[in-house]
Amino acid sequence: MILHIPHSSTDTAGKTFLCERDTELLRMTDWYTDELYSCEGAARIVFPYSRLICDVERFEDDALEAMSKKGMGVVYTHNSFGERLREVDAKERAQIIEKMYRPHHAKLEEAVCDELARKGSALIIDCHSFPDEVLPHHSDAARPDICIGTDAFHTPELLEKVVRDYFEKRGYSVAVNSPFAGSIVPMRHYYKDARVSSLMIELNRRLYMDEKGTKSEGFASIQKEISSLLAWLSCAQFA
Predict the structure, then answer these.
(1) How far apart are CA 167 and CA 177, in angstroms?
(2) pTM for the full predicted model
(3) Cα–Cα distance for residue pair 55/102, rounded to 1 Å
(4) Contact call for residues 163 and 200 (beta carbons, < 8 A)
(5) How, if at all, do strands 174-176 and 43-46 pair?
(6) CA-based radius of gyration for the chain
(7) What is the structure's pLDDT at 140?
């Protein structure tokens, strides 16, 4: 199993911002996902920089990325409220893609290929969280406890069902592809290799932290339940 953790970092690589940075970090960082999602024996691909500098979950080509129209493509130029975030020229954008984006995706692809070679199948869990606040760039106002993101080709129905059932049996409200949809797959395998399964898990941050970014009493509980789920998934076969 591969745990893909793309948005946990607050490292902005010394870049200059045109608007207040820390508030946007609080809104946009998937806080503590590098702590919440762990499983013995699983590969962990953790992006070391903030998504405010480079969002590795976006398509590299802005023509393919819907969020680029809001200035929130692979390299953000605007914040979640539509304010100018940074000035990024073509040279800097190219450097960010070359030094940050592509190396990260190369690591993810390598991890998937390694698992395919060892097991004959690969499972990616795309590890996220989301704010209980509905931000202006969000197109879906739903705010369940848990959002499961699926892909029509790479998410087996059984995988979706067992994860949904796991959380619902523990009293959580669960939605599929709402407010966020999809799950990452390396382009080399995307819609080409059914042996690669992928599912996104999004945790509503109200479950484990307050609005200032401080862990709440619920942190240990959700961490334990996520760990138990991942341990079970790592032993299961879906592809």
Answers:
(1) 15
(2) 0.96
(3) 11
(4) no
(5) unpaired
(6) 17
(7) 83
